[in-house]
């Protein structure tokens, strides 16, 4: 299958749109329940159907899709480099402003809407990539592998140190913490902000010891792929994609099973930590399988092209959609609106997530037919370049750089 440069870029946008779905499925669980991630049974998730939904979420979605998004962030870094070179502008000041802008957006997002924000982490890790961009591919690959290995070993050691008494004390504290958070999130908008600040003060170290090292490793992988033009010539790498797909499944699925299995056994924090250690090691392989599989599907004929056209607009305004997803979830579940938190189980949460994502797709298609950038992308681009870009789509305008804004 021969593809044009525009079609190849649409595949990358579509892959980013696909990643948005997985991120939403995971993030909405935090909005729907204060018990999520605490290692204790959720009162709304005790039925067989809801436990199966929790298992599917953990097995298929958790710890994988933010890695896919991180890979695409690293890939977009190379697009930014080429864009700055093409425009004849200094790259470093431009990227520093971009990461500062992303960090500010992330702070506002974390305080007002979702304490599990990833944008601030991306802004900091992006600065690390900026400093290391001139290092060789072998160096970056070795550092990425080391980050994954050390993070997995760290949590394996934590799991070994966990005693039965520690588990009992942690369980009691988790129930009290979940009850207090539930009351705050149902109270008033001001209390929502206060609880977000409290949650941020308690979870920042988890981000630093779980998400950040793995995300940085995927930044490096995406950066290397961008430098080598892997996604710019997708059709030339079908053999490689098939190998990534099958090897990714072979290594990643057992780790995903080890991570998801405790959701069926309920209230076993030790197994939770052990499963986390395993999936931290294997999730990058499964994320690679997801990426390779979707790129192969996108090239599979008419059905693949339809899927690309459906997902690509959402991927082109991924930052706006990420923020919009949090805004809608905050209105549905928190004191900003309906206060559904603690009233629906995982199965119903899945339905809500897919309904929101369907809205993302429809709105993104409508928006991108009329405008050159998503609203958040436009704002970030204006701050990055210190000039106001045209928002309205211009006929025959070249949109090659749109994905670089995500």
TrEMBL record:
The keyword rRNA-binding does not apply. Keywords: Membrane, Transmembrane, Transmembrane helix. The keyword Transmembrane helix applies. The chain crosses the membrane at residues 18-38, 58-79, 100-132, 138-158, 178-197, 203-224, 244-261, 273-298, 319-338, 344-363. Residues 225-386 form the DUF418 domain. It comes from the Bacteria. PANTHER family: INNER MEMBRANE PROTEIN. This is DUF418 domain-containing protein.
